[in-house]
Structure formats: structure tokens, C-alpha cells
Amino acid sequence: MPRITYIEDMNKWRETFxxxxxxxxxxxxxxxxxxxxNTVPFTYFELARIEYFKDLxxxxxxxxxxxxSIPVVADLQCDYIKQVFYDDxxxxxxxxxxxxNSSVDLHYMAVKNEEEIVFTGRGTIVQISRHTGxxxxxxxxxxxxxxQTSGLTV
Length: 154
Fold this sequence. Notes:
Layout: H1 10-15, E1 19-24, H2 40-56, H3 59-62, E2 69-80, E3 89-99, E4 103-112, E5 116-129, H4 140-150
Antiparallel strand pairs: 1-3, 2-5, 3-4, 4-5
């Protein structure tokens, strides 16, 4: 397996995921060579991230146009490990790995056939004001939920 800078020990890292969302690769997501287009994992990360945020209870407020804060992606990367093809069934895992004042670093893992890691990813989400664009700190309840669902101790 290739060296991925944000993963120290793949087995330990893998064991700490608690949340996942299923995805089936659609024909339209494949390229002329028959494998998953390299842009599509970012869409899968978004889908899993939104479902994770829904599970935490954050999306209800964020989609309310009268609520002050919204999440934005500050950066996002993907590391491709194995090819993925049309109709493959994947589980897209997501977890928080560190929580800042108004940011959270998330890690992603795509698993095929319940065992084979096919791609991984990481990214930073920042909570901002929908009116000013300035960062808004996580409240203590939000931090607590991130920690509970990711096994974080800090």
C-alpha cells in the first residue's frame, strides 16, 4: 500500500471509523477506461460528510436560511489505492480527527467488499457566518459530538 502522509498506521487508523454511508458506482461515474473517474471520490466524500453531519444533528440548522453559520470546505484531497468499477458497492467512512476553534479535519476511507480499501482522503471544514464569511467557533455541544463519534480524547 502506498505511503499516505496523514495515516501513520493503516490498521489502527481504519479501526477508529464509526460512521459510514453506502454508495454504488453508477455507469455515468466511470470513464472511457471503465473505471471510476478520478473526480468522483470527492462527490462521495461530500455525500458521506453530509450524512455524517446529519447524523450529528448539524445539518438541520445549517440548511435553515435564518441560521447564522454554514460549513465550507477549506481543502480536500484523495489518495487512490485500487481501481473501482461500475456497480462496485462501497462504504464511504468519515470521521473527525482533530477539532480546531472553528475548523474540523475529517478523514475518509472507501472500502469495497467490506475489506479492501480503494481510496482514502482528508480535508478541512470550517464553520463560517453565512453573512460575513468569517469563521464561527464550534459550540461545546458540537465539539462533544465530534469527539464522541470519532473517539477523540482532546
